[in-house]
Amino acid sequence: MKLAQLLSGVEIIECCCDLEIDVSDVVYDSKKVTKGCLFVCLCGFNFDAHEFASQAFENGAAAIICSKRMVVSNFVRVLDTRSALSIISVNFFGNPSEKLKMIAVTGTKGKTTVTGLINKILNDAGRKSASIGTFGVVMGDKIIRTKNTTPESFEIQKVLRMLLDQGFTHVVMEASSLGIKNHRLDGIFFDYAVFTNFSKDHIGKNEHSSIEEYFNSKLLLFGNSKKSFLNCDDEKFEQIAKACGKNYETFGLCPKAKIRAKNVNLVSGQGYVGIELCVGETKFRLPIPGVFNVYNALAAICVCRNEGVDESVINNSLLEAKIKGRAEIVPVCNTYTIMIDYAHNALSMKNILTELRKYDPKRLIILFGAGGERARDRRFEMGKIAGELSDFSVLTADNSRGENVNDIIRDIEIGIGPTGGNYVVIPDRYEAIKYCMRNAKEGDMIVLAGKGHEDYQEISGIKHHFDEREIIKEISALGIHMAGVTQL
């Protein structure tokens, strides 16, 4: 492809290059440079690819896309190389999103659940739908792992091209704030955009500089979609609505919501917890606990109704819904409930524990740790929430990374201590899970928090296979699932 074709739509500041040269590939990793490729210099929090531009040129790159003046002979200077990479990628792969029905979901919480629900309903309705997000690229039973929730723009366009070529018609994406901020979605015009909710999160050195920047990043999505679906109960609703213009529908529990949930009930049985809600004359049931999942269900209903999916299909799909690592119940026995959840900070722990308390469990037990090489304050806060809202806590390992797990647990204890909450320390997560199952009592709810969909533990920079679903089944097979021991 000619360089001029790749740069169509890119704002060029300075061009020291023959635009008629042929380009064989687009590369943004200096280790992957090949002869005749176009090398795009990206800047990250801890790196600047401009430093490798000369090396890339020596290794055969036909031209360099940069935002700084270069000493190499063939370069094109642009204002923002990440934005340029998005447009270049769209052109390189022939703008596949133009021929797909594109759906984006953004918000602080609920992106993964809403994306999963929409994808399931569409497939159950006979559409050929795939999703891109936390779990990677999900195409039916096949999953391609990705590094980020919202991958780099070149990877997104590559996937979209593959999906289009394989006959897919719909793509549902988790649009993270960092993905939007870093221009990974530039060049995609979405058919639908969903706003779930907004709260303080992702503020830090390697994320957003302020809550204002975090929110404004999300706002950008809604100016680039044909129709939006907004949670009108959220305090940021009015600001989001302004960004959408008039082309949006609302969902929620309040009377002003166009798609409104009524008669919301918490439902539970032996080893089962979920929610029930009515939209108009139709009753829906979702086997995932928590009132916050009413909003997730409503968001999915909105999108799928607009796609012409029959109400009965939506109903049946929701009835069978199961989102990996999101209040995911793992069947063990009928006497108590054990679930896996991704809650890995104080806010998400508070949400899940508060909602589960409404089901009136005999005891609410939480097993959790905290990620190493992350803000220490998070550990204190998590300990405090667990001590205040659970009946018993089991402190254990999460992804300790380069830190000593016992140091992390001591920080959690600083938070839990003043609450007077009961807890035990078992650093080995496998043994901690076994402890919970051995000591479970009838009517207990046990939450294994922090790992969620992850199937590994990262210790000293190495990822070890660790899937809590497999571990629960393994322990259960040993006959350890309700021994009635009373020390817990």
Write the layout of secondary structure elements.
Layout: H1 3-6, E1 12-16, E2 26-27, E3 38-40, H2 53-58, E4 63-66, E5 75-78, H3 81-92, E6 101-106, H4 111-124, E7 129-133, E8 136-139, E9 142-144, H5 153-165, E10 170-174, H6 177-181, E11 190-195, H7 211-222, E12 225-231, H8 237-244, E13 248-252, E14 259-260, E15 262-269, E16 272-279, E17 282-286, H9 292-306, H10 311-319, E18 328-329, E19 337-341, H11 346-357, E20 364-368, H12 376-389, E21 392-395, H13 405-416, E22 423-425, H14 429-438, E23 445-449, E24 456-459, E25 462-465, H15 468-477
Parallel strand pairs: 2-3, 3-4, 4-5, 6-10, 6-11, 7-10, 11-12, 12-13, 13-14, 19-23, 20-21, 20-23, 21-22
Antiparallel strand pairs: 1-5, 7-8, 8-9, 15-16, 16-17, 18-19, 24-25
Helix pairs in contact: 3-5, 4-9, 4-10, 11-12, 12-13, 14-15
Structural write-up:
By secondary structure, this protein is α/β, with parallel strands linked by helices. The protein has three domains: 3-92, Udp-n-acetylmuramoylalanyl-d-glutamate--2,6- Diaminopimelate Ligase, Chain: A, domain 1; 96-319, Mur-like, catalytic domain (UDP-N-acetylmuramoyl-L-alanine:D-glutamate ligase, 3-Layer(aba) Sandwich), CATH 3.40.1190.10; 328-477, Protein-Tyrosine Phosphatase, Chain A, CATH 3.90.190.20. The chain has helices spanning 3-6, 53-58, 81-92, 111-124, 153-165, 177-181, 211-222, 237-244, 292-306, 311-319, 346-357, 376-389, 405-416, 429-438, 468-477; strands at residues 12-16, 26-27, 38-40, 63-66, 75-78, 101-106, 129-133, 136-139, 142-144, 170-174, 190-195, 225-231, 248-252, 259-260, 262-269, 272-279, 282-286, 328-329, 337-341, 364-368, 392-395, 423-425, 445-449, 456-459, 462-465. Strands 9-8-7-10-6-11-12-13-14 form a nine-stranded mixed sheet, sandwiched between helices. Strands 18-19-23-20-21-22 form a six-stranded mixed sheet, sandwiched between helices. The chain has a five-stranded mixed sheet with strand order 1-5-4-3-2. Helix 4 crosses helix 9 (292-306), helix 4 packs across helix 10 and helix 12 packs across helix 13. Residues 483-487 have low confidence and may be disordered.
